[in-house]
Design brief:
By secondary structure, the chain is an alpha+beta fold. It has four helices and seven strands. Helix 3 (about 170-180) packs antiparallel against helix 4. The protein is elongated and about 65 Å long.
């Protein structure tokens, strides 16, 4: 994967700005990071799991709301799912809507007919909330997509989940911004940028081409012992 220095050099070349002190290195670095951030958005919104991380924490008895900071989740971009481990069983915790916030009360069905807790979760602001209020200290795993991390040092490299030719998106974006500041024509670069964008959007689809998704059973993985094999 290319380093920040390599991307900046390519951007200067593309904008015919090699040795041009009108553009500082720091300024071009900002342009490149903006482009890489946009590329991150494109790949995330394809929902092909290019970026997936997880973090685990333990529930606290009689605590229903957990700030993202308190569980060590400081770089959340999009939440993918929540798992709950109870004994030897790991189940998927379904999401509840704001309108359902009072559906489960401690006096109501806390346990399913299979014996595990009927928890639901909701991400509200910077808090992860559970209903009904947990009474155990079971382990929770949060699956999420992290935010884009900027390249800072010249030796910092582009994330290896990004195909090398996709870096052209950020290089071309930076060159366009340089031309705009210089008040020179950006039309050829904009056309090239459109081609690069279309190519990436098409190529990013169906990352796992061998096993395309089918219809999902909403109860799959929610109930202990409920799955394709039993």
């Amino acid at each position: 994967m290319s380093t920040l220095l390599e991307l900046r050099t390519r951007a200067r070349r593309l904008a015919d700005a090699v040795g041009n002190e009108f553009f500082s290195d720091a300024e071009i670095n900002d342009y490149i990071n903006t482009g890489l951030g946009e590329l991150h958005d494109i790949l995330v919104l394809k929902f092909e799991d290019y970026y997936v991380s997880s973090i685990s924490f333990s529930l606290a008895g009689d605590t229903s709301s957990y700030s993202l900071e308190s569980i060590g989740l400081n770089n959340l971009y999009k939440l993918m799912g929540v798992d709950l481990k109870q004994g030897a069983e790991t189940v998927r915790v379904p999401r509840y809507s704001f309108q359902e916030r009072n559906t489960f009360k401690s006096s109501q069905a806390l346990y399913s007919d299979r014996g595990h807790t009927n928890h639901r979760y909701s991400l509200t602001g910077n808090n992860l909330n559970f209903i009904p209020t947990p009474t155990s200290t079971d382990e929770v795993t949060v699956w999420y997509i992290p935010t884009y991390v900027k390249l800072v040092n010249d030796s910092d490299s582009v994330d290896d989940r990004i195909a090398s030719n996709w870096e052209d998106y950020a290089v071309c974006s930076a060159a366009i911004k340089m031309r705009q500041k210089e008040e020179t024509s950006t039309k050829p670069l904009e056309l090239e940028h459109d081609k690069i964008t279309a190519r990436i959007e098409n190529a990013a689809r169906n990352r796992d081409a061998g096993e395309p998704f089918g219809i999902t059973d909403e109860d799959m993985g929610v109930l202990a012992g409920y799955g394709p094999f039993g």
